[in-house]
């Protein structure tokens, strides 16, 4: 365990600090978060130490208290003082212990010993692994310029160190999970409001959720706040989703919208609000730009027209528009998160953003909130300049409004495969698993095969690690010291969390920071990593003198900054300095300044549209192999409507073959009326090719093998809902 473990607290002092000592002594165990593992007073209280930390089973970073007995984590409880997650740890959060002690964990550095992807490895010492990494990086840099090396890092408190390394090493080529996730949404809101909003769900009276599934795809505090708003404050929830999700099941209304037609619905809503003058004219005049143009533009998009496109009756569209306007400004089209859906996802989400603007909910209770400063200081550095480098990243200019710092994974992969505009021959992968999460797995395999040297830093032998040359074992979040991270939880909080190790790092695992620092030293870049994470943190806290004490005491530091009205008297970060209904920049670039509807491609006869989506047990491609969560769902199945199944002669539970233009797979069919007849769905993360994921190796089918790899035309975000598949009954042989 590291020095300076300020957050280490004994069980007794923790209860004292949280004022729960009396309650605890009544139950004979802990009562944190309402959980009482030792509810019976006759049972001796367990002797454990308690440590604050932040969950990392997904990106939400829920505050937790780890219970440690004799150096082993025995239980994870929610930190009751962590308001962002409303004192909750979900199923995955609870299963963190099984991840920590999973026998499938990577234990030592492993060097490929057979053909790529053959699964043969040789254990090597760390020094050899690090020396080899530095040597290969140098070789590739010399032969192909520093940009010949690609760096991919997932959501993590240490991912900033990967970007820092890439920059000082000299590569512009950095990708992250975000171009598989939400960059079209970010693009749309940046180009409307000038920033990406937080949804003040708890104070909302009306939430229209389109293409999001908040009760299964957990985002804190929104998931819990939505339930509170509905149960305690009478908030109405309307869900548009081709599937009957858990969110749909709990909603006031569910409309199984035809996939790809959300923009038609939204333009008709805008049409109704404008033509019936249901908006706050004064607010719109003061805050927005382009209302007249918008009014002219949407006059063509009537509810009757939209009904024919999206399959939701015109009367319902009109009613929903009126209800939302009546509840405004405490009403919202939920901005959503994953919008890697269609080739016009940025414009689809622009239509949502514009409808939100018409509800005048910006910067107001129950609406869309601006980002609040948390107060963490950045730690600046001045990267070197490399004259021999190409002018830009490998995917530059392939779409008009790319985010430069992370580009597009899908377009980068295409560039690697073509070798144009220049070759990329090395790949550093940290905490992301594109073999399972990027569409068109065959292309990711081909990309891995093009590389001269790939290093993967992970906790498990994922499919991406399986395709690497060198695999380095990382400590999990319960073993790691991380820099501080600033989080905003809607109106709940703007806060800071840190992670200290709760137990010693297992096996030979080493954090990516140590790996990068060591390799930087070997490449004469040591000056850019001449600090420890503790020192880095101290610099982050330079302007927050009270933060460390609060973190020690509560496991979280709150910055009590203003929540609403941040934009009073302040210009928006857009060209017009207002909320842009009409985007002049788009017009100048030859893009539609207001969303123009194009009907999605028709589902071919005897085929289905394949859509993606998550459930509450799993995080993307990561937790399917977790021993506890795997028990809840040991394999994925294909959701298929009984009417469609009957035509195909498929019975519930039968094995089917699913085939698309890029791949195929076999899994069992689950017949359910909870999906449209023209749509099928399966969970991500199964059908692993890596034998190192023992519970899901060849179990179920991989959706990434089936998805085609189109992208959003504006942002380069993957478009994951554009694939059509055939479904055929497999005759037992
Ligand atoms: N089919 C399909 N594809 C999708 C999506 C979908 O819904 N369906 N969703 C998209 C979205 S929204 C996103 S955000 C992306 C996510 O895409 P990824 O970032 O690729 O997904 P994860 O499964 O979260 O990958 C996390 C990786 O980190 C590893 N890991 C976990 N903990 C640690 C640790 O402590 N240290 C290290 N070094 N590694 C660790 C895990 O083993 C795993 O390999 O996927 C996108 N792709
Ligand atoms: N349990 C769990 N929680 C998570 C994650 C996780 O992996 N597991 N990941 C986190 C991350 S990184 C993200 S980005 C968020 C994602 O959060 P969400 O974006 O809410 O999650 P998805 O499951 O992708 O939900 C998309 C929904 O859109 C529906 N859909 C498909 N096509 C259409 C369409 O054309 N129109 C409409 N209206 N709906 C359509 C799908 O059926 C699906 O239910 O979740 C976060 N929370
Ligand atoms: S939502 Fe669940 S998995 Fe994600 S951080 Fe919170 S407890 Fe962990
Ligand atoms: Mo995501």
Automatic annotation (TrEMBL):
GO molecular function, one term: molybdopterin cofactor binding
InterPro entries from the UniProt entry: Asp_de-COase-like_dom_sf (IPR009010), MoPterin_dinucl-bd_dom (IPR006657), Mopterin_OxRdtase (IPR006656), Mopterin_OxRdtase_4Fe-4S_dom (IPR006963), Mopterin_OxRdtase_prok_CS (IPR006655), Prok_Mopterin_Oxidored (IPR050612), TAT_signal (IPR006311)
Cofactor(s) this protein requires: Mo-bis(molybdopterin guanine dinucleotide)
Entry keywords, A to Z: 4Fe-4S, Iron, Iron-sulfur, Metal-binding, Molybdenum, Oxidoreductase, Signal
One Pfam entry name: Molybdop_Fe4S4
4Fe-4S Mo/W bis-MGD-type domain mapped to chain residues: 48-104
Family the UniProt entry places it in: Belongs to the prokaryotic molybdopterin-containing oxidoreductase family.
Protein name (Swiss-Prot/TrEMBL): Formate dehydrogenase
